[in-house]
Amino acid sequence: GSGSNFDIYGQRVASNGTKIGGAFPIFNSGSNEKNPQVAWNSSQNEYMVICEYDSGGGLYQARIQRVSSAGSLNGGPSTFFSTGNIQRDPCIAYNSSENKYMAAFANDYSGDGLDDLLNIALDANGNVIAGAYMSWSPYVIKKLRATYNTQTNEYLVASELTDNVSAMRIALFKLNSNGGGSGISVGLAQKMYSPYVIYNPARNEYAVSFQYDYFSNGSEYAVGIMKVNSSVMDPFIWSNFRAAGNSFLWPTIAYYSSKDEYLAAFTNRVNSSGEYNLQTIRISAGTLAQVTTETMCVASEDGKAEQKGSVVFNSSSDQFLAVYEYING
């Protein structure tokens, strides 16, 4: 951004960890655009990016943009659903069985002052097909992330769930291919924030990453990753990684099928002056152990904030696309 607003940038990364070209803008309207998420369309070999867009006076609306596998924009951005109130924490998942997307976001659709789940089905070009609304009152839904299960033709959504007082935990719940819900499947332990979920078709299980308050002091966060079986019962294995004195924030993960690995992307708080960068690390899908202790900086300009990334793997082009917030100053 210009120093007064956030833009959304993308960076392509080869499967060997090297950058492909330079970073490129995806949303840079001059208004704040924040909290990006990305999905890959295997049928059309392109990406769909969703973010929050400030449509005026802090009224954020969900906005989407198609991006080619070469990193160019396919058409202009679309603000596809206007509710008249703020849409927060959008997420998107691609349904490869039906060549469509599910986009979801937190929104006080019922007007009771508590954010609910609002999700819409989109065709491959981003046009609205249908929508559904789910309330979890008296709970508040935050920071939604979604993945698609190719075997059951359904979505799994991860979110922060709070009673709007103090208790907060990560919750997982299912949505069918039309957006209908089957209820909260499992509530994970507290002290976990900013969840991200991915389906592993080779193992028929999910991996959930999260920001973890390692010392319970609110200042040194680690990245945690856990497995959850396909029935979405209790998690059965988890691990974490951190750097003493640093905070690793807003983690996301992508599944790299050729190596049966996850690529975890996270924001590293470089200093207390607002400088952040986006880093990645390889994780074994079997053991959740680090494949290497070395991290790679995807976006790391001095004095800039590059943060809140999302990453997806493109098996047709053998590359990842990372998208993130960027502000120049």
Question: How would you describe this structure in keywords?
Answer:
329 residues, four-stranded antiparallel β-sheet
Q: What would the principal axes of the Cα set say about the shape?
A: globular
Mean pLDDT score, rounded? 85
Order of helices and strands: EEEEEEEEEEEEEEEEEEEEEEEE
> What's the N-to-C terminus distance?
8 Å
Structure, explained:
- There is one protein chain.
- The protein has 329 residues and is an all-beta fold.
- 0% of the residues lie in helices and 60% in strands.
- The strands form 6 sheets. A 4-stranded antiparallel β-sheet has the order 2-1-24-23, with no helix packed on it.
- Strand 13 and strand 14 form a beta hairpin.
- The chain is globular, with a radius of gyration of 18 Å.
- The termini are close together.
- The model has no long low-confidence stretch (mean pLDDT 85).
